[in-house]
Design goal:
The chain is 71% helix and 0% strand. The longest helix is centred in the N-terminal third of the chain and has 19 residues. It is globular. It has a domain of 93 residues. The protein is an all-alpha fold. Helix 2 packs parallel to helix 4, helix 4 crosses helix 5 and helix 9 packs antiparallel against helix 10. The protein contains 13 helices and no strands.
């Protein structure tokens, strides 16, 4: 917060983050991830955006290599959470080995050869979408339609905004208001787009303005409309 307020240098904050490279605690990494996400958002309008992605890859790759993709005997719930957090962060940042493995596991999952565990689905989905194309998005929307559990539908809805191409971002926003998405979950889809990229943020804001009447009538000024404006 002090860095965002301009009280201390962002460089000093990044140096502190680097010191946690051998930290095994999930809560610490969750906090680092959140703050790096905010920094990445702030820097997305500058020439430093790719530099911060490189920094993420450098900081998160050692813990990613230690954790690996598969659970170890006797590990706890927080280890699984940490694995999902780290792999998702590396995948979004374009870490080559993570992206390749995510694509391989996603293909096996879609083809029914090896179903992804629940804790790996979000990081794999967000990784393949971030670096995917229209075929990837179509596959994800198909998985959403076929999902028989609302939890899986919500999981997919939250990550769709990771897609990068402008025309596909529009497709996700249109999907958000379709009958495929429960009205109470529309905000999650739009919010995911807003948080996915600089292009997504602009597109989501325009989409909300263009569809304001429908959105306002849908939520009648309740907490969901407040949440939508916040995201």
């Amino acid at each position: 917060p002090q860095a965002r307020a301009g009280i201390i240098s962002t460089v000093e904050v990044l140096k502190v983050m680097e010191a946690f490279v051998n930290e095994p605690n999930y809560t610490v990494w969750s906090d680092l991830s959140c703050n790096l996400g905010i920094l990445s958002t702030l820097l997305s309008h500058t020439d430093f955006h790719e530099d911060i992605q490189l920094f993420v890859r450098d900081v998160f790759s050692p813990i990613g290599e230690r954790l690996g993709w598969d659970p170890r005997p006797g590990e706890g719930h927080l280890d699984a959470l940490l694995r999902g957090l780290v792999l998702g962060k590396l995948g979004k940042a374009g870490h080559k080995a993570t992206l390749e493995e995510a694509r391989r596991r996603f293909k096996d999952h879609v083809e029914g050869k090896h179903i992804l565990s629940a804790d790996l689905r979000s990081p794999v989905y967000v990784t393949v979408l971030k670096h995917g194309d229209s075929s990837t998005l179509d596959t994800m929307l198909k998985l959403h339609k076929q999902a028989d559990m609302q939890e899986e539908k919500n999981r997919i809805e939250r990550v769709l905004g990771a897609i990068s191409q402008p025309e596909l971002i529009q497709k996700v926003l249109t999907f958000a208001l379709s009958e495929e998405v429960r009205p109470q979950d529309t905000v999650s889809v739009i919010g995911g787009v807003a948080g996915g990229s600089k292009q997504g943020r602009k597109a989501a804001w325009k989409f909300v303005r263009d569809n304001w009447e429908e959105l306002y009538n849908r939520y009648q000024g309740g907490f969901l409309i407040s949440r939508l404006i916040k995201v």
